[in-house]
Structures are given as C-alpha cells and as structure tokens.
C-alpha cells in the first residue's frame, strides 16, 4: 500500500532569543533542521500546520519539508519541546535523512483486536513495551507496528519481540526475548477490592429484600381489615 505523502511548508528565520516569542505570538513555531553533511538551518513553520502534520507523522514517518520556495527535504521529527502546563509546542527539531542510508529510530506499537483470555478466563492484559527500535532505509520505515491481541487465549500466553512479523528489510534492534504483552491472572488483591466494593460495610443498613417489601405493602391492608 502506497504511503500518504505528508507535506509541511517552512520559512527561513533570523529571529532568535526574545524575538522567538514574537514568532510564537503570531502562530509560528520556531524550528531547526539538520542532518549528516547538512548545515543547521533555522526555520519557522505555521503552528497549526505542524500540529496537523505531527498528528499523522509522529516521530517515525517521513515529512516532505519545503523551505521557502526552494528545495524539499525528506525529514523526520527528531525532537519536540512542549510547555507541559499548557500542552503547547515550543520548538521542533527536524532531521534530514539520506534516503540511501539506513536509520535507527523508534516506532510506536499499536495493539489491535480483543484478547479471548479476558472474557473466557478472566485474565488481564499487561503491556510491557510501547515502542520498537528499528533500523531500515527511510522509505521502509513503518508508521506503527500492529500487535494482534487475539492470539492471547489463555493465562500465560505471551507475545515476544521475536513473535512479531515484519518485512525482511526491517531490522529489529530489541532483544528478541523481550516481552511485548502477556496475559496474567487477575491478582487476588484486585478481586478482593472488587468484592469489597459490592459488599456493605459492617453495621451498614442492608436494603430490604423482596419478601420484606411485599410484607410492608400488605401491612396497611391487614390493619384496615381489623378495623
């Protein structure tokens, strides 16, 4: 399947220091691009444009970065700085890749499907790895690695790195025995907590039973008959 091309327009910038705040106030995000045998270049990209591109590309998908009206570079988002309080981007580093050279990067693991062990055996799913370290040519870099939870059918089932099926051109750098996800029994502490949540505390008034409710409804009628 052909990958969607992600494009992003950038402009060269001279602003630095305090002037960068003025850029941000105008909805521009300061950036820099660098790479092997490529001089650092200070840039700015429209905040909303970058936000849209990053939502799709993340840090593991190539972006076509066009600088002014000149050349278009194949880049990866190498690092983003954010204001943790506001959740806003402050700065982004782009890395220009050589399409003929292999790169090393991390790709997000996406868990899909439902694990039968959860419904059929009351198990819980424990995810122990959320990214995979890969080495490949830039064009072969996947956006994400899908892991199917449907193979977890009984307690003790496990998916290791070695179990993942990837194209031959992609080399996985993680230890093959590293656990990605496994199925475990629900811990007794959790079960006790769930039982306690549905059990009335000692001394608490219990809700009336169905028989008690019916008896209470009949009581006024019986009193009226006696009168």
- Proportion of residues in β-strands: 35-45%
What is the number of strand segments? 13
CATH T-level topology of the largest domain: Ribosomal Protein L25, Chain P
Low-confidence stretches: none
What's the tally of helices? 5
Largest sheet: 6 strands, mixed, barrel
Looking at the structure, what is the overall shape? flat
SS content category: alpha+beta
Would you identify the CATH architecture of the largest domain?
A: Beta Barrel
So, the CATH homologous superfamily of the largest domain? Ribosomal Protein L25, Chain P
Distance between the termini: 87 Å
The spatial strand order of the largest sheet comes to 1-3-2-6-5-4
Helix percentage range: 10-25%
Q: Which value, in Å, is the CA radius of gyration? A: 29 Å
The tally of structural domains comes to: 2
Relevant terms:
227 residues; alpha+beta; Ribosomal Protein L25, Chain P; RNA Polymerase Alpha Subunit, Chain A, domain 2; six-stranded mixed beta barrel; four-stranded mixed β-sheet; 5 helices; 13 strands; 38% strand; flat
Describe the protein.
The chain contains 5 helices and 13 strands. Helices cover 23% and strands 38% of the residues. It is an alpha+beta fold and 227 residues long. β2 and β3 (38-46) form a beta hairpin. It folds into 2 domains: 7-98, Ribosomal Protein L25, Chain P, CATH 2.40.240.10; 105-190, Ribosomal protein L25, C-terminal domain (RNA Polymerase Alpha Subunit, Chain A, domain 2, Beta Complex), CATH 2.170.120.20. The chain has helices at 19-25, 47-57, 116-121, 188-198, 210-226, and strands at residues 7-12, 28-35, 38-46, 63-67, 72-83, 88-96, 103-112, 123-127, 131-136, 145-148, 158-160, 171-172, 179-185. The strands form 3 sheets. The chain has a 6-stranded mixed β-barrel with strand order 1-3-2-6-5-4.
